[in-house]
């Protein structure tokens, strides 16, 4: 039977390492095990894995240092790192994500959850690598294939957060419709749509329990959420797209008056494509149900962009959006 992927498992507790290795091997993965950080680095550099499952609390060299060195080495920097650890404090998660980890699984873990996260991150990394190979050829056939792969990446991200399932696709469709109403060129509209389909891909690095939290977020948790544009940019920037998709993703939370994030850009410092996506993003988000509130409906969403036209949102994009809903009876697809 063909192996499903090469995984490096690292844990200083022999029993935990054996349990993890056996679980993955039973699912068809090729697993190499390392009992400490130094052995893990040697193994990874000599035979780079597709994914690393890494404990944090280890003697001599902890998991954070191992992750840092993996991300520095050209042979291993592309491998996703998932921390499997008893640590559950948000501050530790922030530190891990800052070092380049893509996810956390807290011990004691559920078998199904661990396997689902491993599969999701392997698929995203393979799809990204495949896109890097394909993007050199910019024919119309490639663009069609690129849409399929980007849609697959978006669906993989949304699997982790049922409340935003379909949000990226609906926001992308509205952004494209706004751009078309503004009479932008079709090629530019295509780039806006594709950026919209993956604009929240950076949320793959936000713990699922924060994305789905029904109550109010703490300041630290909100800071993690706010890192998703930069995380998405880092995921997409190695791909040589024929459109500025990584930059659009990076800027979609920027606002006209400079109050947005992550860079505090204002007005024309923000790409037009990102200004359009920002309007579509907030309208779709306000109309849809979230774990912390019910959907607010189309009237409230249009009131939000009308009230903040020119302050937070691009005036021309707002005008086009209002026209779509009020004159052209725009409807989100089912």
UniProtKB/TrEMBL annotation:
Residues 6-122 form the Response regulatory domain. Residues 142-334 form the HD-GYP domain. PROSITE patterns: HD_GYP, RESPONSE_REGULATORY. One of its GO terms (biological process) is phosphorelay signal transduction system. GO terms for molecular function: phosphoric diester hydrolase activity. The modification 4-aspartylphosphate is found at residue 55. Pfam families: HD_5, Response_reg. Keywords: Phosphoprotein. The keyword Phosphoprotein applies. PANTHER family: CYCLIC DI-GMP PHOSPHODIESTERASE TM_0186-RELATED. This is Response regulator. It comes from Candidatus Methylospira mobilis. The lineage of its organism: Bacteria, Pseudomonadati, Pseudomonadota, Gammaproteobacteria, Methylococcales.
